[in-house]
C-alpha cells in the first residue's frame, strides 16, 4: 500500500512535535502551575515566578524534583552573594566593628562556606532519588542565615547582616518548599 505525501507529512510533523515536546520537557504554563501550588504564607506567586525565572532551565522541569534541582543553584548563588557581602563588611568597615562583631562575621562566613556545598549535596540526593535526604539537607541549609543572625542576638549585638540574611533565607525557602512538595507527593 502506497502512502500519500499528505500522510507522510502528518507522520513527520507528529514526530517533530514529539521531539520538540521531549526537548522542552513540559507544556507551557507548568511553571505557573507549580508557583500556584507553592504559594504560602512566606512565599508568593510573584516571588516564585521571579525566582524560578532566574534559571533558564526551570521552565523545562518535568517534575518537582527536577524543578528543585534547578532552584537550588539559585539559592546557592544567593548564599555566595551573602558571603561576599560579609567579606565586604569586614574588609571595608572592619576597623569600625567591635572584636566580637568581627568574630561573628567570620563565623557567618564559615556557615555560608559550609552551607553552599551542602546545597549541592541536596541536588545529588535528588538525582539519586533520595528526596528525604535532600529535604533534610535543605533544612540544614535553610538554618544558615538564622544561625548567623542568632550569633549576634545571643550577645545582644545589632547584626549588620539582618537584611542580607533575610533575603538569603527567603531564597533558600523556595527550593526547600519544592523539595518538601516532591517528598510528600504534592503535585
Present the secondary structure layout.
Elements: H1 5-24, H2 30-38, H3 45-52, H4 64-93, H5 99-127, H6 131-154, H7 162-184
Helix pairs in contact: 2-3, 4-5, 4-7, 5-6, 6-7
CATH topology: Butyryl-CoA Dehydrogenase, subunit A, domain 3
Structural class: mainly alpha
Fourth CATH level, the homologous superfamily = Invertase/pectin methylesterase inhibitor family protein
Largest sheet: none
Portion in strands: under 5%
| CATH classification class | Mainly Alpha
The rounded Rg comes to 22 Å
Order of helices and strands: HHHHHHH
Residue stretches low in confidence (pLDDT < 50, at least 5 long) are: 6-29
Number of continuous helical runs? 7
Report the strand count: 0
Averaged pLDDT, please? Answer: 80
| Tally of domains | 1
Alpha-carbon distance between the two ends: 46 Å
Describe the structure.
Belongs to the PMEI family. Helix 2 (about 30-40) packs across helix 3 (about 45-50) and helix 5 (about 100-125) packs antiparallel against helix 6. The chain has 7 helices and no strands. It is elongated. It is mostly helical and about 190 residues long.
